[in-house]
Amino acid sequence: MKSKKRHRRKTRKVISFYKQPPKLININGYYLLLLPLKRSSSLRIDCNIFGGSVLENRHNTGIAHILEHIIMSAWKRCGNLKCSLYLEKYGMISNASTHKMFTSYWAKCLPKFGNIILDYIFDIIFHPKITQELLNSEKKIVKNELEGYLNVPNWELNNQITKALYKSNGMRFSEDYRQQINVLDNITIKTLEAYLNRSRLERCVMFTISGDFNRQEIISYFRKKLQKTKPNRFRCQMLSFDPQMQCFTMVKKVIFVKNPKAENTEISISFPTDIKKGSKYSMLLPFVNEIVASDLTSLLVKRLRLELNLVYGVSIYPIQNLCGTSIHIGISTQDINILEVLKETFEILKKYSDEFIPNNTLLNEKRKYALLTRQISNRNPNVVSSFYTSQYFWQLNKKHRKIYTLEQLHKEIRHIDHTTIMQIIQKIFNTNHCIVGYIGKKQVDFTTANF
User: Is the pLDDT of residue 214 over 70?
Assistant: First the structure.
């Protein structure tokens, strides 16, 4: 009798993209990161520029934001059309965003239109056509955007927390939308060009090309184009950035903002840390954050929702830049539960700063991570661009960069143990440097002595 052959189920290989970190190319002081994907059917171009809010002050706060709007439509080839309308015939997707310490521009298209988006991104960065008509138009759009933010009650809480969290005036006013509206009329083409001259500099700019492209053609393109860029008398402030002078205040503080119309109380808890890109903890941080606050199996949601019925959910997100990493926890609850929610939240964070998380919690999170990695496509440049761009950009001018590959990250998470997780929780949830803010109808008896 023949024995039946046992067929082993094939497991899908985890996408790692590259065995070694890609090399960063320096062309006349501007950086180029090439991330080819053999099976991709699209092309993505990113440009990250050091600046954002950190180069602003109280009197020109928001200038980086309106400049970002203007630049997206400042391509000479667009003529009298908005660039989004001119480019729609190419099926291109594009966007931009302004942050506390950088501005990001990106575009994505089919590879056959690669030369179009290369010219578009390069020209709006180095040769933007800024007209008075365009400035006036974008001022109206930005004002509408900012007024929309003012309709969200939490804006004032976020504004006060941000002002308490940072030393830099530019970053302190980065969420003061009233002040940004107040100074909008004072922004001129001259002030925009002055800001451009302080940000669009050698050793301040990095381009990332990902997807389907010819490596040598891209390098030749940038060498030819960058030879024609005019030298700038300003020096990139990324090179002289002083965290001690500009970054976290490291205060311990409670902030209350009254909102008589609030249905619930919104709580925001911020923790500044010195965890920077290139460190092992930086790479493991998203994984640990998922353990602390994400779905129903996370430590905070399990306690606050499943066991105590105090909240619907808990959000957590990091902000990473040259200052390090700030961790922000968001919770919404009924007024009668404010004190209990705060008490339980800090008890959970304290508990797992001193003891191991449950075995099943760690196993569950590792399995969810494994599931997620198997869903990553090696055709889509978005994942690979996001993963490598942030690592390189925040180590742009370091002599020795520590860049992780996706395979290295997968390995670290497969082998992460209880001790490492406890150590990271201890580091990021240090209540000696913590700002607790809440907005609602009711102020409660909660002070820094309570955490």
Answer: yes
Q: Which tokens in the block code for residue 152?
A: 């969200």
Q: How far is CA 426 from the centre of its chain?
A: 23
Location of structure tokens 């430590």: 299
Tokens found for residue 36 = 């080819």
Those residues whose C-beta lies under 8 Å from the C-beta of residue 227, and which sit 6 or more positions away, are 28
Q: How many CA atoms lie within 13 A of 392 on its CB side?
A: 29
Task: Tell me the Cα Rg of the chain.
Answer: 24
Residue 211 has pLDDT above 60, yes or no: yes
Among 76-85, 179-188, 206-215, the least confident range: 76-85
CATH 3.60.20.10 corresponds to the domain 248-450: no
List alpha helices for 200-268, DSSP H. 215-226, 243-246
Burial tier of 32 (Cβ tally within 10 Å: 0-12, 13-18, 19+): buried
Q: 162 is written with which tokens?
A: 């941000």
CATH number of the domain located at residue range(s) 24-238 in this protein = 3.30.830.10
412, 280 Cβ separation under 8 angstroms:
yes
Helices (H), 93-131: 114-126
Instruction: Name 224's Cβ contacts closer than 8 Å, sequence gap at least 6.
Output: none
Q: Using pLDDT thresholds of 50, 70 and 90, give the confidence band for residue 22.
A: very high
What is the sign of the dihedral through the CA atoms of 73, 52, 322 and 428?
negative
Phi, psi of 35 (to 5 degrees): -125, 80
CA distance 266 to 257: 10
Q: What are phi and psi of 27, to 5 degrees?
A: -120, 105
Three-point CA angle 27, 392, 220, nearest 5°: 25
DSSP state of 379: S
Distances (CA, A) of 425 to 177, 272, 328, 342, 365: 33, 13, 13, 17, 15
Query: ∠ CA 350-353-357 to the nearest 5 degrees?
Result: 105
Report phi then psi at 333, rounded to 5.
-150, 165
4 pLDDT above the threshold of 70:
no
Where exactly are the structural domains of the chain? 24-238, 248-450
Taking every pair of Cα atoms in the chain, the longest distance, rounded to a whole number of angstroms, is 90
Taken as a whole, the chain contains a residue count of: 451
* HSE of 252, CA atoms in CB hemisphere, 13 A: 11
What is the SS3 assignment for 43?
A: strand
pTM over 0.90: yes
CB 316 within 8 A of CB 292: yes
Confidence class for position 16, pLDDT limits 50, 70, 90:
low
